[in-house]
Amino acid sequence: MDSQKTSSRRIAVIPGDGIGKEVIPQALKVIRASGANVEISEFDWGADRYLRDGTTVPPDGFATLARDFDAILAGAFGDPRVSTNIHAKEILLGMRFKMDLYANVRPVRLLDAALCPLKGIEPKDVDFVVIRENTEGVYTDAGGVFKHGTPDEIAIQEDINTRKGVERIIRYAFEYCAHHTKLDGSPRRRLLMCDKSNAMTHAGGLWQRVFKEVGAEFPQIEKQHMYVDALCLQMVRDPRPFDVVVTNNMFGDIITDLAAGLQGGLGMAASGNIHPGKASMFEPVHGSAPPIAGKNIANPFGAILTSAMMLAHLGLAKEAEKIEAAVLEAVRQKKTTQDIGGTFGTQEAGEWIANFAGRL
Ligand code: NAD
Ligand code: IPM
Ligand code: MN
Questions:
Q1: Scanning 192, 243, 277, 318, which has the fewest C-beta atoms within 10 Å of its C-beta?
Q2: Does the beta carbon of 70 sit less than 6 angstroms from any atom of ligand 2?
Q3: What gap in Å lies between CA 128 and CA 194, rounded to an integer?
Q4: How remote is the CA of residue 19 from the centroid of ligand 1, in Å?
């Protein structure tokens, strides 16, 4: 235990494209200021490298990440110069799929009432977690285009839902609910499964049956269900009832952008792509935001909170808490970027957090 506590954690860092290259350096600054014992190795995977030499992921790339690192911190991938988005697909979805990081954990927390667009909603009202299936669904690229470009063209995008895949994410979500508390220390009690089983009956049927079966092993957890459309309405009408939500890959993608809106926007949302026991990957929920890239205006807090999530996952709870406390204080004092009401640039906001965290 002691040796684990003192040994340094090996982190692979892939800033990627656009604002990923601006927010990740701030996250690294803050990690260092927190006193976390980490060894950082940076990787240049992204659009620039792809445009330079055609490499998306080097041949042994994923094996190296899995073998030589405890965790991966990634920025964002997507660049208007790469219209196919092939590099993003191979790097980002490659990590999720090939490293089998099946649980995409996306906490939704409101740090200050001023950041929420809903009337009368306070931080205690928004503290839930979306657990998104991360290795199958419509993201597997199964399907194809036939009679391309003709009036008879057929485009098929398969929705893959395996018994094993559905069961492991639902089980992960129940375990998560059973073992995690809310920010105020109270236990999590409810798991809501979100699907579209009224229209997508084959996949939805499997999710429904598995939710019921696995749920029987967790009698203490209240089970709920909502169709994804109704859930979107509920999220903006009153987010207070949400606790833990489990859903498929695409619905999880969509509802976590909506949920980011409750937190103050995409610049505030953190996430982890997790396979217990394997090197997991942490990234802010936002993308590369090309229109604001290179201007020192992107909000680094999503990336910084993501780094705290990564440190907590690696057993560095104290350092993670310092970082979260510093972000909370920055939000309270409006030491933030413009998107959430402050006047700081990306670097100044990162610097402020690093200084504050360094004094804790
Ligand atoms: P986006 O998340 O990049 O931007 C959506 C909106 O949110 C924009 O208005 C942007 O300015 C704003 N925004 C995002 N992050 C912000 C931040 N940190 N601070 C302030 N404002 C922020 O999504 P998009 O515009 O749909 O996609 C742009 C590119 O990013 C595309 O290539 C897309 O495929 C890619 N993308 C990548 C990831 C990822 O790598 N994880 C995630 C989402 C999108
Ligand atoms: C996300 C992103 C990705 C996704 C894109 C870039 C493929 O939107 O991480 O939320 O859809 O998973
Ligand atoms: Mn998304």
A1: 277
A2: no
A3: 14
A4: 8
